[in-house]
Structure to design on (295 residues):
């Protein structure tokens, strides 16, 4: 059994990017710039945005954070987005989700310049991904593909079960893994809350990817020997014995499922670090496009 070390792979990617940035700056170019737009004070969103900012600085990017009160109007936020679209010193930006309920998230996503959309949520990027054209891929699916690639996990002809159909993880992954590409050519099944024969499907699967937000849901009696497990879930459960009073776990009962797995990602330390690394990779791509450089 091999534990897939997302921290290690993410560190490798960041070091590769750091060298590319240094080479560009040595030629007199400015470094890439990533902006994050944060509305409100959700602790998880704050932590995520600050980690992106820290990671950016460590590899030589410049970054900025635009923080707004949760009562900002939709029109005001759209004005901010349009300004970022026009700003030639901003190569890429993300609008941290979720947004307050009075703001139409789809309207904001549609307003983002697809060439700066490093979250990969704009319909133009999703459509290009569907067509197999170059596009900004959503960071978490992109990170999972990179883990599969770097650990040389075979996918061709394999049965992949994805549990979860969100636009952020499940649906993009189902498309990417089924395409004629490295890390693709799989037969993909997408399960969700209405799936009735989930255990039957999971026992057939060669690779299981979870992204459902149910702590420790996937048990050892639901998987076959030799299965590959990629856990994109992150949940907090009570742990009174710890200083924080809680601990983070995935959607998979890791300690028991690992006994049957050939490869498995831990939580934390698996998929999570890859999401930020691939956001930075997308930012580098946006920068090279706007600077007319080759990747």
């Amino acid at each position: 059994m091999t534990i897939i070390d997302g921290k290690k792979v993410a560190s490798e990617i960041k070091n590769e990017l750091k060298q590319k940035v240094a080479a560009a700056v040595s030629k007199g170019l400015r470094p890439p710039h990533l902006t994050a737009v944060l509305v409100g004070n959700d602790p998880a969103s704050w932590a995520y945005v600050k980690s992106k900012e820290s990671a950016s600085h460590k590899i030589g990017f410049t970054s900025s954070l635009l923080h707004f009160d949760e009562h900002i109007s939709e029109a005001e936020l759209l004005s901010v987005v349009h300004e970022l679209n026009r700003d030639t010193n901003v190569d890429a930006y993300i609008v941290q989700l979720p947004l307050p309920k009075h703001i139409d998230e789809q309207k904001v996503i549609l307003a983002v310049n697809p060439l700066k959309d490093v979250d990969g949520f704009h319909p133009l990027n999703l459509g290009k991904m569907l067509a197999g054209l170059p596009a900004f891929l959503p960071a978490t699916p992109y990170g999972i593909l990179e883990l599969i690639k770097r650990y040389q996990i075979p996918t061709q002809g394999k049965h992949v079960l994805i549990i979860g159909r969100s636009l952020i993880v499940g649906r993009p992954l189902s498309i990417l893994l089924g395409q004629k590409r490295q890390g693709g050519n799989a037969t993909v099944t997408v399960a969700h809350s209405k799936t009735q024969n989930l255990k039957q499907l999971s026992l057939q699967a060669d690779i299981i990817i979870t992204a459902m937000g149910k702590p420790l849901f996937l048990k050892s009696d639901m998987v076959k020997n030799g299965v590959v497990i990629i856990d994109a879930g992150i949940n907090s459960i009570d742990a009174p014995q710890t200083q924080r009073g809680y601990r983070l776990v995935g959607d998979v009962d890791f300690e028991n499922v690992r006994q049957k797995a050939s490869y498995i990602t831990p939580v934390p330390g698996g998929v999570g670090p890859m999401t930020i690394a691939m956001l930075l990779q997308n930012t580098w791509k946006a920068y090279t496009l706007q600077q007319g450089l080759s990747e």
User: Anything to note?
Assistant: Residues 28-113 form a domain with the Rossmann fold fold (CATH 3.40.50.10860). The chain has two domains: 28-113, 139-272. The chain has a mean pLDDT of 96.
